[in-house]
Amino acid sequence: xxxxxxQKRKVVEVPRPEEDSGVDEELDNVVLNGALSDDGxxxxxxxxxxxxxxxxxxxxxxxxxxxxxxxxxxxxxxxxIRGQMEKLKTNGRPKTPPEKLMGSDTGHDIxxxxxxxxxxxxxxxxxxxxTFTRIDVDANGEPRYIYDExxxxxxxxxxxxxxxxxxxxxxxxxxxxxxxxxGYDINGRRxxxxxxxxxxxxxxxxIDIPExxxxxxxxxxxxxxxxxxxxxxxxxxxxRNEAPGEGYDPYPDMVEYFTGxxxxxxxxxxxxxxxxxxxxxxxxxxxxxxKMVKAIKEGRIKPYSKPTEADREREExxxxxxxxxxxxxxxxxxxxxxxxxAPKLPPPGYEESYHPPPEYLPDKQEREAxxxxxxxxxERYAKLVKEKFERCLDLYLAPRVRRSKLNIDPESLLxxxxxxxxxxxxxxxxxxxxxxxxxxxxxxxxxxxxxxxxTGGDDGTVRVWEIVSGKQLWRIRLSSSEAVNQVSWQPSxxxxxxxxxxxxxxxxIVPQGEICNPEQDRRSREVLDSGFGYAASNATKTAAxxxxxxxxxxxxxSQTLQDKGVLLTITLRSSPKTLAWHRRxxxxxxxxxxxxxxxxAVAVHTLSKHQTQYPFRRLKGLAQTVCFHPSKxxxxxxxxxxIRIYDLQQQRLEKQLQPGAQWISAISxxxxxxxxxxxxxxxxxxxxxxxxxxxxxxxxRYHSKAIRSVQFHxxxxxxxxxxxxxxxQVFHGNVMGDSLDNATVVPLKVLxxxxxxxxxxxxxxxxHPREAWCVSAGADGVARLWT
Length: 787
Hints:
15% of the residues lie in helices and 23% in strands.
């Protein structure tokens, strides 16, 4: 949608909540190992064979197609049929040497042909041979062949070319045994007999029976006949003297047409035609004739007469100037003689009345006998009081006024949404394409200043691009066999650190080149190296004084990776699929859905201390993703079907949300922290207002396939989601600071451009920190910038 002329861009700044002075240090002296525990049965059944938890949407579906095959007759029946066919072929045939035969056993002596014998060659299907129509003599006296003109609509490769069909009808093909042709086509030309193999070839073909071989010949064309399994089954039944059809009863019950009761049939005594005296004229024709006679008498039907001179003059005058008054002879017309008035409805009977018919009422004697009986002995109708009450109720509640139907416009019931042009700016076109990855791009992240974007994919590489020009500035290969599942920039502006999850390791990278200035490079290296001293001086020990084994290994990588910018590596117990940073940039959390133990699925790491903690002793459900609150010490954990909110300072469960989704894929928290977006693999996008309740405030169904990712804009009232149908949906989501007003959600734009590869479309989406731009990563190995 084009922007209106002279219209200014309207940017709505979302106010940042004021952070509490004591909140910044909510995680400094907190020990989370096993602090957040959930007891009870798990909501999701999982085992060690659950897979890696990364649902790609392209699950294998079992094909239950049945294999159809023709029925093959048994060897005994096959030999029997072949013998009968050979007898049919050889009976009554003249014995001619094979070298003089042309064709098969129905061929004839070659000596019987002459050059003057007109024959039509057998045309092969799919090839059209051009023939001449007549022979002329050229200027030199040589014969010149005159051909038909080539039709421009057809050529030699025309698939609509029809094979000549035999037009002999029901004449048996044996009548043409003494001729070199087997019939005539639609133009009256002879159709030559198709050449067939010798007897030895037939014997060899019969030894190795090809598919569909029957040994029969089509009587119309002389070619081998192809029979189906059902036809072969009918032939087998005929050779065994069995009923060929299904459900045929060879011994039906006798139908008595002449001797049965009521079935006697009167037979005529003679076959002589009926005499004319028995003719009965039609009453319908008699009425039509009488109508014509009446019309002739009244003058409405006149016999034809030649027009006179006066009639011609009158017609010419009417053609020159026609004037007539259609109301000149306007008189009331009487009713038609055949007019029948509408029948009157009969008066209501006893069906519509509460009074019983007379035959049900007692007569005088019965009434006197009933009155003479004692009151207790009298027979009474059991439902008399109930039916009397219902009758009175019907009369009381019967409507006496005709009610008018309300005509309400359905459009008036819908809420009035603002015009999308008034909600600009929002992304609508693709401005830049980032190409270079081999395979799918699983994740992407935009730097805090909005200048660079980092991507990671199945090829095991992390690449940094300039967001406006699309130029690749730096790349590194972390693994040749494992995919990079997640990349994320540290939110601090003083450092330039990229966290990448590849396999069971989390790599911390400081990109080289012009991406980081010297001050950022120095500060980044200090942050990554500060934890080695803290971990050495504050090592945890057991009661026996032995160093306690660490749940994760914080080590320096090899010298080759250090030279390329990888300065720190964490090795976990399972492959992390999600990484979420705290707003301060010192804490981050990883989620490993493929772990065998739920206690190690969610881990909270401290970068400055090189410390890893597992906050859950037992987690209900299989964790999918996590996020931190932007201003409060709240921790959001999403399992397959629920979302739990934990207070990290109080170390207790704060709230539990029930989105109602079958499988949650991603969550995104509003910058104000009061609303939560939840995407699911069952094609639904759920909006939760944390102040209202545990159920969704709105449910959006705009995609035809699974939704992979959803993201709020950091500063503008926008949010977007990415789906496997290859599209991105951009919405306007205005959140009011007042709790009395509900959020406003308006669909703005559908962004199309990514290709669907193996049932996977757009895998991730990320917003620019300031502008109304978003970057999407697709399964087609391309990332796109939408502005």
